[in-house]
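Quick one: structure for this chain?
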Amino acid sequence: MARRVIVETMLRSTPEVSGEVLPGVSKRRDWGTQEKLRILAQASAPGSSPALTCRMHGISSGQFYTWRKQFRTGALTGFVPVSLAPDTPALPAPMSVPVEPQSAAHTAGNVEVELPNGIKLRLTGDIDAGALRQILAALR
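Got it. Here's what it folds into:
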């Protein structure tokens, strides 16, 4: 009987715990950044797979792919992977075409200049020698 009285007294003096968070052992595992990176690296090793790695470490595939997305965006480590694009080759300067002065100020006919990048410049009709020099100088 005395035991029953003690239990009832304890129950009456204990506050209700509905909605209250009590400290204690959590069932969630707290993965460190180094552990996450090691697991991600293990999944990409030859002969391994994400599913196999998830089973080995007891994590869900959704958790694994969330970590992988965080790694790729830089949210996991704070660094974003960088890849450098190959250098584009510089186009060589167009070859200068020596223009010999003619006795006449105008030259009748067709002039066609093809640049190394494939662009063709066609001039037809009366062409002023000075204007042609300016055009060729601008193309250098």
